[in-house]
From TrEMBL:
Gene3D superfamilies: GntR ligand-binding domain-like, Winged helix-like DNA-binding domain superfamily/Winged helix DNA-binding domain. This is FCD domain-containing protein. Keywords: DNA-binding, Transcription, Transcription regulation. Residues 13-80 form the HTH gntR-type domain. InterPro entries: GntR_C (IPR011711), TF_FadR/GntR_C (IPR008920), Tscrpt_reg_HTH_GntR (IPR000524), WH-like_DNA-bd_sf (IPR036388), WH_DNA-bd_sf (IPR036390).
Length: 240
């Protein structure tokens, strides 16, 4: 019998944590595709565990929005964000990251600046390889943004970013990141690091805004290329 739509965060156990991480990674890597039905008993058999930790893990994933649960229908992988959701996600990131880097610029933490520069250098190195290791680049990119926000010293801003992190990772599946796109993104990172180094809060905020505008533009260009310019709106259930 499948769980109902009522989603509660269960108590954490080591086994539940392992099942949760495995399922979460499979969803993020699109091994479990958007809309796919998730049968707890089948997943449990595949992972050689009892159904209980699987159901607990699925409830946690549902609380994060990676999985949906419906009465008598069980669990499904949540659909990818709609075009309008993608835009709203990037706008939310702008609010968080602009506020964070503005604060970080006033601190100019030496260690954080060194680590940010090292990540930019790492991404530069990755863009010189052909083909581009997209997974490695995205991992370094995510670490860069977490570190830039964390450098503010404001844990609430970092928590706000982390709350969006899973959807940020999923959004990257819209972008078939090319070497050219990766180089542009990293050039924008470099501008932000320079503003932080200079202690220029306004400049850092603007650099963060410009970078996230660039991210949105690149995502939209990729969507236009791959869906013929149709904007998908999951909320309306239409394609236009």
């Amino acid at each position: 019998m499948e769980p109902s739509a009522s989603v509660e965060l269960p108590a954490r156990t080591a086994l539940t944590d392992r099942v949760y991480e495995l399922l979460r990674n499979r969803i993020i890597d699109l091994v479990l595709e958007p809309g796919a039905r998730l049968n707890a008993d089948k997943l449990a058999a595949d992972m050689d565990v009892s159904p209980t930790p699987v159901r607990e893990a699925l409830n946690r994933l549902a609380a994060e929005g990676l999985v949906t649960a419906a009465p008598y229908r069980g669990f499904r992988v949540s659909p990818l964000l709609s075009r309008s959701d993608l835009a709203q996600l990037l706008r939310a990131r702008q609010v968080i990251e602009c506020a964070a880097v503005e604060q970080a610029a006033s601190k100019r933490g030496k260690l954080e600046l060194q680590e940010l520069s090292a990540l930019v250098a790492r991404m530069d190195e990755l863009t010189r390889a052909k083909p581009l290791d997209v997974k490695a680049f995205n991992s370094a990119d995510a670490a860069f943004h977490r570190l830039a926000v964390g450098a503010s010293g404001n844990r609430f801003l970092l928590q706000a970013l982390e709350s969006l992190h899973v959807h940020i990772q999923l959004a990257r599946h819209y972008q078939g990141r090319s070497v050219t796109e990766a180089k542009r993104a990293n050039a924008e990172h470099r501008v932000l690091v320079q503003a932080l180094t200079d202690g220029d809060g306004a400049g850092a905020c603007q650099a963060a805004r410009d970078h996230l505008d660039g991210v949105l533009d690149r995502l939209q260009t990729h969507l236009d290329t791959h869906d013929g310019g149709r904007a998908h709106d999951a909320e309306e259930g239409t394609t236009r």
